[in-house]
Design brief:
The chain is an all-alpha fold and 156 residues long. The chain contains five helices and no strands.
């Protein structure tokens, strides 16, 4: 897979988790906790790569710097909203309101990123740079383990 396929796969996974969370009721507390944990881990992995590698690479180009900075700010807003959501009991009506806000923020960010950031990267970055970024994300994922969520403990 190339860089954009990996990131788009992350997006599909994140959007799927949001959809599954949308379908839960306040009586499905365990399911909400599990799905929210998975969503948080996937978001953190995805955002970490973008913020440490992709956005700085793009920001080195004058015409892409504003978009890269905007995407970083969107990540911060999403993280704050996710943090607020995790502090609310999953069976409170406020939880659903905060979740809907988070879902809207993420959906908007994904759409903008795929339409703008990815297009900028494809236009500005050389094939060699794109290949390097693809290698870096693959190495990062391997280091964290097959799930891509956390490192595997050493085998004994």
């Amino acid at each position: 897979m190339d860089l954009f396929q990996v990131l788009e796969k992350d997006h599909r996974s994140i959007l799927s988790a949001l959809d599954r969370l949308s379908e839960t009721t306040d009586r499905a507390l365990r399911t909400r906790v599990e799905l929210l944990t998975k969503l948080k881990e996937t978001l953190e992995l995805h955002a970490s790569f973008e913020e440490k590698i992709l956005y700085p690479t793009l920001a080195s180009y004058k015409e892409a710097k504003p978009s890269a900075n905007k995407s970083r700010q969107e990540h911060k807003r999403i993280q704050k909203q996710l943090h607020r959501l995790t502090k609310i009991p999953r069976n409170e009506p406020e939880w659903e309101t905060e979740f809907k806000m988070l879902k809207a923020q993420i959906e908007s960010h994904v759409k903008a990123e795929e339409r703008s950031i990815f297009k900028l990267a494809q236009t500005l970055l050389s094939p060699e740079q794109l290949e390097d970024l693809t290698t870096r994300i693959e190495e990062d994922r391997k280091e964290r383990g097959e799930s891509g969520l956390r490192r595997k403990p050493p085998q004994t």
